[in-house]
Design goal:
The protein is of the alpha+beta class and 413 residues long. It has two domains: 7-148, Jelly Rolls, CATH 2.60.120.260; 152-395, 3-Layer(aba) Sandwich (Rossmann fold). 21% of the residues lie in helices and 25% in strands. It is built from eight helices and 20 strands. The protein has helices at 162-165, 180-184, 197-204, 232-235, 266-272, 274-292, 315-335, 371-389, and strands spanning 7-8, 20-24, 31-33, 37-39, 42-45, 51-57, 61-66, 71-76, 79-85, 90-94, 106-112, 129-137, 141-143, 155-160, 208-213, 238-240, 243-247, 256-260, 297-303, 344-349. The strands form four sheets. Strands 1, 3, 6, 8, 9, 11 and 13 form a seven-stranded mixed beta sheet that branches. A hairpin with a 2-residue loop joins strand 16 (238-240) and strand 17.
Length: 413
């Protein structure tokens, strides 16, 4: 496996000295992105890509949290410096210091790279993160972030399953239908949702974004072994994916909802038939409209027959999958609100070059896209979203060549 960023292990962590200050996680100087719940001075979250940032001036900084076995990217001034692996109890995690060390303040960002509940035969599943606060040494302080570091004029909400959450995108190249060996070697460390296609698209538009994604979840029918306790129709409205106790915050409204679902429903389509799935997706579209209001654009992405998606073993199967989902989703969109919703769009995503079973670098663990495969899909989604929302070229941060396809397939973390 290739080299990757160093990992901060949970064991043998330096204990904060007596003269430290604990700042609660609910302090307004901590800025969160993604769905999260405030309760009794703590912040709770579990959806992938949820993150928070703060501007800090302190020689040493700790995170006090129950990380619930999740993995996090740690960034200093926008640069990834390490990956944090956590355990399922409250610990104080010492953050790396900026290099070279200085008295000046810097921006610390913590990004959740694993999804709400993911495990393996040898790893207990992740669960809800409990962030208690930030510990600063001695006379350290938090500072107010500049407005441009905390706000974006664009809001995007991405809905999907394993391809959207970045499942296996850092794992070894294993194209095609997953086999027993790949299932036995599955590793939570091989997922980085911040290198999945939604994060790439959001970065292109400098957008505030939410990734509401769950491996194995279908709109109506989950895949066997899916860790979710509900289908996507039930999961979407939850602030915490693993709990239905708290419903979504209506103050955060996206400019567009980008949905790429159906890969798990497809495996049950022959058994249950088109009509049930069409009704299910019709109900889902109505549910989105009820929760998000009449103005948000809903963009439904469809796979192309020429570019292979997760767990597909041949171009023939890909063509069948693409045709089946197009037929069902178009029928559902036409029936939703009696076909009178002018802000629901269906678009075929056709990466060029395509994700190919013969291109090893396109693939990560268990037949899922690698970082490169995700970048290919993102590059095809960006112009579609730009056109549908009427955004100008000036909004794009990207170069004329599109998103970088650079990324290490199989990076060790």
């Amino acid at each position: 496996m290739g080299g990757g960023h160093s990992r901060v292990n949970a064991a043998n962590l330096p204990i904060p000295p007596p003269r430290c200050t604990l700042i609660p996680a609910t302090d307004p100087r901590l800025h969160f992105r993604g769905r999260h719940v405030k309760k009794e001075g703590c912040i709770y979250f579990d959806w992938p890509c949820t993150s928070f940032k703060l501007q800090v001036a302190s020689r040493r900084v700790w995170l006090r949290m129950d990380g619930a076995r999740n993995y996090f990217n740690i960034l200093i001034n926008g640069i990834l410096v390490c990956v944090l692996k956590t355990h399922s109890d409250v610990r104080d995690y010492l953050m790396p210091s900026p290099e070279p060390a200085s008295e000046a303040s810097y921006i610390l960002e913590v990004q959740k790279r694993s999804e709400a509940k993911i495990g393996s035969l040898t790893q207990k599943p992740t669960s809800v993160v409990h962030l208690h606060g930030i510990i600063l040494e001695d006379s350290g302080s938090l500072e107010e972030l500049r407005l441009e570091d905390t706000q974006s004029s664009v809001r995007l909400e991405f809905l999907g399953d394993s391809e959207t959450s970045g499942f296996g995108n850092l794992g070894p190249s294993q194209p095609g239908v997953p086999g027993l060996k790949s299932m036995l070697t599955m590793n939570v460390a091989h997922q980085d949702a911040m290198k999945a296609w939604p994060a790439v698209v959001a970065e292109a538009f400098d957008a505030d974004f939410h990734s509401i994604s769950w491996s194995g979840a279908g709109v109506l029918w989950n895949a066997p072994g899916c860790s979710a306790d509900a289908n996507f129709l039930g999961l979407y409205s939850r602030m915490l994916g693993a709990s239905e106790d708290v419903k979504i915050d209506h103050e955060w409204r996206p400019d567009a909802i980008v949905s790429y679902l159906g890969g798990n429903d497809w495996w049950s389509l022959a058994q249950h038939g088109d009509e049930a799935l069409i009704r299910g997706f019709q109900d889902f579209l109505k549910h989105l409209r009820e929760l998000r209001g009449p103005d948000v654009i809903i963009l439904v992405l469809l796979a192309a027959p020429s570019s292979v998606c997760a767990c597909i073993g041949s171009l023939e199967d890909q063509a069948t999958f693409a045709a089946d989902m197009s037929r069902c989703w178009r029928a559902a969109a036409s029936a939703a609100n009696e076909g009178e919703d002018p802000k629901v769009f269906l678009e075929v995503v056709e990466p060029k070059p395509p994700c190919s079973l013969s291109e090893a670098a396109d693939w990560g663990h268990m037949g899922h896209w690698s970082v490169q495969g995700n970048a290919k899909w993102a590059a095809a989604v960006i112009p579609i979203l730009q056109r549908r929302l009427g955004w100008t070229e000036q909004l794009l941060k990207m170069s004329e060549d599109g998103p970088s396809l650079e990324g290490s397939n199989g990076s060790e973390v």
